[in-house]
Amino acid sequence: MPIARFSWTVRLLLVLASASWSAVACSSDEAVETDSAATMKTSSSSAGQAPASGDPDRTEPAVEDRLALTDETLEEYRRDLLTLAYRTASALPLQPHVKTRSRAQQSVVEACLELGQLRRAETVAAGIEHWRQGMALALLGTELARQGRPVEVVEPWLERASRNAEAQARQPNSQAWRRERVRARIAQAYRLLGEAEKVATFEAGIQGSESGRLLAGRAEVMEREQVLATIDSFESLLAAGDLDQVRGALKGFERFYGRFYEEDVIREALEVTIQASWKKVPREVAIDTLMGFAEIALAHGDSDRALSHVGEAQQVFDAAVWLPEHRVPRMAEMAEFRHRAGDVETARQGLEAARAIYDAERAKIVDIDRAGALRPLAEAYQSIGEPGVAATLYRRAIEDGNRNPNSRPRAEDLCATCLSMALHELEPDATLWARLKQVFDALAEPW
User: Fold this and answer.
1) pLDDT single digits (tens) 16-70
2) How many angstroms separate the first and last alpha carbons of the chain?
3) Which of 24, 241, 379, 440 is the 20 to 30 A CA-CA neighbour of 199?
4) Which of 385, 297, 295, 402 has the alpha carbon at shortest distance from 347?
5) What range defines the domain where residue 112 resides?
6) Is the residue at 316 inside a domain?
7) CB under 8 A, 24+ apart: contacts of 266-270
8) Cβ atoms 370, 400 nearer than 8 A
9) Is 111 helix (H, G, I), strand (E, B) or coil?
10) Taking a C-beta distance cutoff of 8 angstroms, is the pair 32, 87 a contact?
């Protein structure tokens, strides 16, 4: 059954019912920026705290830098959902929840970038008082580079990201991996720009978990003979037992698979190598890699090979026992993909089975994990063209994510659910908008 639609006038009446809700009704870039700035100020001052870890070297972006950022046309309700997600994340007090708050704010940045909302993404990033501001700016710069923007447009954002990372590294109790993660992302952007010297500069000294990410980035530019040599050396990499390196190599293999899909020798070598690694890597990693291969095959119009990869992922999945909060999202993911690849009947059976498992085992799932299990299921139903079922599942996610007496997990779930609906084009009806408002308004002590 199609989702009920209602006019903006009706929605405006809803949102004007509360003064704290008015910013959700942003309808222009200028309004978004004004609201975001006000939200940031209110969120910090209402907690009676100064920014926990701001960047003392931070300067406001030049006017010409911001003018290079534009927002693509986006439906009003999706903009409203993005704004509500940001306001929800920013409602979390800096102390003691700066990590949770900034992580949620970064997720809003990522959603904005995915939806082509570059100016909005920068506005949100500016409100992050944590090392993740540098990460958000690096993500923005990487997206600009991916779009083919010139160096003079991209580099100011990478420089701001770098300054933030260096300032954060000087803070008490700073952790090296945070700086390295930002620098690894900056290096990725420079690689897309073809700036080899700057890639080397930002990659220098990166170790530990972030070094695996560099392997994936380098896969974008390796020549054919280097690719074959890397595939041949994977067994020795597995034997070394460094999971971060293995993850990075497998992400690199996905890049190889996409770049050289039409070349039988490389494609088949990758497939054989992945099949041989199933029992030597964590099951989650194996499934992620196989699903990545499946997406690439489908993008090349090869639905038979795509479904074969999903079948392999299913075998890995079925060979283990999963907690329901992990089992349901994976089942939804594989079913949704099967539907896109043309295996409609199996897809519907998989989704029905996932719903049944959630219903049967809901009581076994900790309340803060329930909405996280339902959202992928709602997304899958939306993807296969059943928005009525999707809306029902989103409503249930909102309720199941609103059970904990503490506001922090409720805010995390509300933010994630708003982003999910925005990304998957689920327009809330009047009743659902009103419920979102109620959940937002109820966020308060105890956190």
Assistant:
1) 344 333 333 333 343 343 343 334 333 333 333 333 334 444 456 666 677 779 9
2) 38
3) 241
4) 385
5) 1-207
6) no
7) 266/224, 266/227, 266/228, 266/231, 269/228, 269/231, 270/231
8) yes
9) helix
10) no
